[in-house]
Amino acid sequence: MAEEPVVRVALDVPLSRTFDYLPPATGRLQPGVRVRVPFGRRQQIGLILAVAESSALPRKRLKRVLEVIDDTPLLGEPELWLIRFTGDYYHHPIGEVVATALPALLRRGRSLHAAEHAADVKFAASEAAAGVDIETLARRAPRQAGLLAALRTAGDDGLDVDTLNAREPGWRRAVKALTDKGLAKRFETRADSFERADARPAETGPVLNPEQRAAVEAVHDRHGFGAFVLDGVTGSGKTEVYLQLIERAHADGRQVLVLVPEIGLTPQLVSRFSRRLGEEPALLHSALSDRERLHTWRLAREGAAKLILGTRSAVFVPLARPGLIIVDEEHDHSLKQHEGLRYSARDLAVARAARAEVPIVLGSATPSLELLSHCRDGRYTHLSLPRRAGAARPPRIELVDLSLHADREGLSDVLADAVERHVTAGGQALLYLNRRGFAPTLICTACGHVAVCTRCDARMTVHADDGRLRCHHCGSSRPLDPACGECGAKVRPLGAGTQRLEAALKARFPERRLRRIDSDSTQTKGAIHAALAEAVEGGADILVGTQMLSKGHHFPKLTLVGVVNADQGLFGTDFRADERLAQSIVQVAGRAGREDRRGEVLIQTAFPAHPFWKRLIDGGYPAVAECALEEREAAQWPPFSRLALIRSSAHRRGDAHAFLDYARETVSDTERSAIEVLGPVDAPLARRAGRYRAQLLLRSRDRGALHALLRRLRPILENSPTARRVRWSVDVDPVGLF
Questions:
Q1: Which residues of 699-738 are buried (b: 16+ CB within 10 A; e: fewer)?
Q2: Which domain holds residue 672?
Q3: What are the tens digits of pLDDT across the range 74-100?
Q4: CATH number, domain containing residue 620
Q5: Which pTM value belongs to this model?
């Protein structure tokens, strides 16, 4: 007689392996189906990744699946491939990858068709309940016995919540106990609560210019996979190219996935897509409820959603008929997850497009150097939009020398006069300062003591709105110090943040309408959308903000951009410092003059002779990128090498370093010939939230050798005795080292 098959289940635990189980008495087992299994002293929801004939463990040691949750697979082979690829490339526990890919309600075992009302939630006896002696159970748990008897009588139809409330008082604790024992199961009847908006007439788009038309035809003519870098200056009409491609994909009966880095970019895109396409895009982002996210996920999976617009995690959404993937603002670091599973949504989108054999468009006014390098070697196709759409002209960019024009509260007279000139002429001004709060430092005027966080190696930021000092790293706060804690002398805020700049502008322009947009002013739900809508409609004369205002937004009246503290990134220690600074300035500068009036950009700097400024002003972003690529090739930094960063943190500094010392010692002499091992060293912010942090950098020109090492190293580190005393992670292709 043939032996029972073995199912390999991914569980949400920090171990790089699947777990083998025997099948239950009934239930069809196949990859992509969720199951409930015993794990230690508890039960967990897992996903079957494979069905095998045998296990490395003796069969007598294998436990049996308690419940098969899904009748048919939730995920097909393309989605399972993406999960396996993600776990393998980023060297992350496969169960945690599954948890990232599934909506929260599905991770908890809820039905694919989320219930909307209590009457839709039902409980029934499981298959295992048939063998339970009710009388024996009643002697030690009478309520459980009574409930189980009622559930068995109800059969497969089960009992809904309203019925249980009426017939079985106190049933919730009893049903939890029965569910934990695998004797009862929860299910839901189908109830779709979010009806799609009625179709509306689609607007006709503008006539494309030659560069836009060439870009559309290049992508549409590609049958199968192709990666296209849509390199368009700000205001060049990249979104119009997206729309034309989406229309063509829909005409072919195909779905389109559009990824954006932040939810702040979605309102204008949603509005524009809706007007042009005649229907609402299906949205996936963190501001949605669990039920809304599941609803969109299901519509995409079933093919009912033709256009899915989402942030980073939407890269995992299943698609019934994929036809095109678009990544807008591909250079943005928000597309990289910085905690837990440290994946790049942009890079996974490319891998997914290749697997599905569909084209992918990667759009940006400031393409990342990695993508420009791919264009150079012919792996990606470079599509250029070198001029603004319509009659709009590029803005004039000038430097304000702070050694000649001193600033007060972050604002020089030159910039203030420009604000007055543009606003008086009916324009709108945006002042960009990527530093929230009132001031980054509180310093003693006598002894020079600086207010620091007690849990981090960082200074506390002054927040004048509520009179507190806040740490922007761990979130701790305390009341503003009235005097120096060391000598008792007077203290004063040093430097400028958006709150201080806002106060200075209010004092200078009391009659003007001013709006500050940063993460402090937009904490409530919907605040960021309301603030951006006000800015777009001209409800504010002067905008003050951080990078939230720097990318993707179209402000029709905006004619002046002032970069208040450009030197903040001029002397960065990270090898990406020049690239990031150029990207941020070009992006925010691109908000100016996108209509009929030419824009003006003033950049305040104390170092006007720095060669970076000449390259940027004379040659734009391409000149900065060209120079940066030459420097990186000479120093063998990405994209001319591959990196992996192993991080550790612990309550004791020695434990954090001991773990990484062990990792370094594990790298063999043979591997060292192809891989450079740097560190371990303290992280630049060595202590954060009371934990000491260290890092070990692996660098290699051979990507295969680096991944082979990580594939061998991860299980060793998981089983290391030192791992129990630290939190650690592997970050493949990190976007920040310092």
A1: bbeeeebbbebbeebbeebeebebbebbebbbbbbbbebe
A2: 642-732
A3: 999 999 999 999 999 999 999 999 999
A4: 3.40.50.300
A5: 0.86
